Amino acid sequence: MMDNSPYVKRLVKTFLDVIILSMLIENPQHGYKIIEDIHLIYNVFLSPGTLYPALYDLQKRGLVVVKKGSRKKVYYPTLKGKKEFLKMEREYKSNTHKIFKILDNITSDMKQLS
Hints:
Shape: elongated
Oligomer: single chain
Strand order of the largest sheet: 1-2
Distance between the termini: 36 Å
Structural class: mainly alpha
Helix content: 55-70%
CATH class: Mainly Alpha
Number of helices: 5
CATH superfamily: Winged helix-like DNA-binding domain superfamily/Winged helix DNA-binding domain
CATH architecture: Orthogonal Bundle
Strand content: 5-15%
């Protein structure tokens, strides 16, 4: 299966921190499972070279912790990570709403040109 449009890939990469945190809040998991789930949900393949630096950054910021599983490292959200996720969600929802409003206005204006 091919990757989705470059716009979707860009969105996933832009919002990767909140996507990862939301997945880990739902179900702590290892890195390759995160890559697999992102591919299933968004039809975007992230390389380990994209995912692991993002996981490391979240870990460095105290938003996730790593525990050694039977064979793989499993990532868990911290309490700080869960609180940060709620802040991210509010900010992203508030601002994406503004962006979509602008897009809707431009689209409406362009339809009038036809």
